[in-house]
Amino acid sequence: MEPGGDEALLRSVAAGDAVALSRLYERHARGLFGYLHRLAGDRMTAEEILQDTMLAVWRSAGAFEGRAKATTWLFGVARRQAHNRLRGRSAPEPAVPDLAERPDQGAGPEELAIAAAGGTPVAAAIDRLPEHHRDVIALVFVAGLPLADVAEVLAIPVGTVKSRLHHARAAVAAALTAQEVPE
Amino acid sequence: MKDLLPGYAAGSLPEADRQRVHAHLPGCPRCRAELATWQALAVPDTAPPPDPAALVRAVLTRSALAPQATSPPRRLRHLAGLMIAEARLIRIAVPIASALVMALGVALGLAQATAGADLVLALVAPIVAAAGIAGTYRFGHDPAGEVVAATPTSGRLLLLVRIALVFGYDLVLALTASVILAAAGAVGAASLLTLVTAWLGPMALLSSVSLLIAVRFGPDIALGAAVTMWAVRVLIGGVLVRDGWAARLVVDAWTTNAPVLTISAALTIAAFVVAGREPPDGRHATHRM
Q1: How high is the ipTM of this complex?
Q2: Which terminus of chain A has fewer Cβ atoms in its 10 Å neighbourhood, N or C?
């Protein structure tokens, strides 16, 4: 355990060191917030879950046993908090049931969905993926975790992480093709 | 190589792997094409994360204000906490008076002033315990009544804790007195067991009756009833010895045996059932949980 590492910071947090909590957050703020932002869909909810997450870290850092990496533990906490808060909420309803089957009709609900999802067609296509696929995408591409760590956070085999990634890529590619064909 | 492409697009590969992919790409159109699709997925999240100082401040505030709901209540510690809290509510005069009366009984037994030690203890221990019990349930003018009404802890549990405290204390007192008398070889104290048998049954019965009356009618009436009942028992058994079925019945009722202990237990349960109901004046500060 190197002195300035995440594990050492978590030990200090467990001992009640608020400065260590702040440093730990600064180190992972971009990844954690990006991940939660992607899961929650809006900034306000993401900030709430981020607060829940850091509160849970503050309270249960003592439960970190060092068996997992600090990063995967942190993202595991974030994922659990996101699940707790988003569970009651209905999943973001896709405005269009199946993109591939619809011809383009100008400024239809699809464009609205794309605009709502941050403007890019890719983001809209990602938002339409099932939740466990979005989770993988967010951990790999937004949080920037190595695949092995993603597998650990989600408690699934690395092979499953890869297959979900490929599925997500295929779905997004299909969505983009459908988008471009009429034009 | 294909397995490395998502990580390469995400920028999360270890340096060695990154360089391998970097060297491989120029000569492999298929991998370049696949990488392009991964890069399309890797939309960075551009929203800036919240300010660290503000976030940590919010977290610490919430930590201080909000109760920790994540950890399940530790039952034993909770019970111990209840015991300590309730012990503080018992007026200090009650245990002191109980101890003094019991000490007086021991002194009488040792001095053989009146009768055998077993008789003295049998007369003293039950009324001490019953008087203590009578004072435990005072919802009308309980010093903690308002707080009790507002706590999520049920009134029954609080009553149980108090009874356990008071009765346990009196039990220890009576046992100590018995041990002292037995060790000193006082008259009538043939063995520790005889001494305990002399007071245990009556103590349980009188206390349970006292509790039931206290719960239903209040502590003053309970105390009065306990004293009256016990006076009848003392007069019939010790002073106004009369032969007859009524006298025998009364003496039999105040001995240590299975039926008496069973009845005591039943009366105690009845008291808890009554105590669980809404208090007559409906003094609940909050809705029932």
Answers
A1: 0.74
A2: C
